[in-house]
Structure prediction request, 228 residues.
Amino acid sequence: QVQLVQSGAEVKKPGASVKVSCKASGYTFTSYGISWVRQAPGQGLEWMGWISAYNGNTNYAQKLQGRVTMTTDTSTSTAYMELRSLRSDDTAVYYCARVVVGATTAFDYWGQGTLVTVSS
Amino acid sequence: SYVLTQPPSVSVAPGKTARITCGGNNIGSKSVHWYQQKPGQAPVLVIYYDSDRPSGIPERFSGSNSGNTATLTISRVEAGDEADYYCQVWDSSSDHAVFGGGTKLTVL
Prediction:
């Protein structure tokens, strides 16, 4: 069965960086992409971007351009999301989700989420 | 950028029908996906491509999309349906995903 398992909770200081991992299993990793979606406390879902696990192409949300980098390691079927220059409003649960890149498909499988807390 | 508008809350009595709307400019020309999120849990896909149900999702969940409004309909609502519901589309001009603001469904 398809599973996306994310790394554990993180606490970071403002200005620091965080790197969250998402290990996929149960499907051919390179046939799909991974999107990252975050959710601030008590708020809605915010799409952050996607990465193709096939060729590494990326597409980031405008507001995160320059601060976010998404990568994959096909040898371990793992996707990563790094966010730099963290601010307090980056405090959120970060989710990875499987997607077909370049198509209007849904996010059919989601990771369990990773809480990132940014606090001095 | 493309904007999706959902009502913040919808309330319904058990056994009745809940309808959650998602408004967007000519949304009928786009594919709409719906997610259910219960407190402390990851979102779960309940409707994709306007009206298709993933395996394991009850037939009580259905969707439609036309004009400027997409609708998620939950028939014979149960207490376990209480959750936040989000609609989502892809903005074809940027290939960015867009989520609605979410609707909290309360079962009275």
Q: What stands out?
A: The beta strands of chain B are 9-12, 18-23, 33-37, 44-47, 61-66, 69-74, 83-91, 96-99, 103-107.
